[in-house]
Amino acid sequence: MMIIDRFEGNTAVIETENGIISLPRTELPAEVREGDILIRENGSYIINKEATVKRRRKMSRKLRELLDGNSSPHK
Fold first, then answer.
1. 36 burial class (0-12, 13-18, 19+ CB within 10 angstroms)?
2. Contact 38, 51 (CB under 8 A)
């Protein structure tokens, strides 16, 4: 899995299972944004929209739990 961590100028900083990599923003889809999950297909990077939505929902739920003081995990 590759997750866009942040952008530094025209470079994307990406978290992978093996560590952090940097790629020129021009190699990524124009609409890519922080938190998107990427997959490599046929030599190109594409956004895995389904996985991105699931991850965003999970992170949002965790944030709500922290803010509400609820320590019981949801799956």
1. buried
2. no
Residues contacting residue 48 through CB under 8 Å, at least 6 positions apart: 37, 38, 39
Could you tell me the pTM of the whole model?
0.79
Q: pLDDT of 7-45, one tens digit each? A: 999 999 999 999 999 999 999 999 999 999 999 999 999
Find the length of the chain.
75
Q: Quickly list H helices, 1-75.
A: 49-68
User: Which of 50, 52, 20, 51 is CA-nearest to residue 36?
Assistant: 52
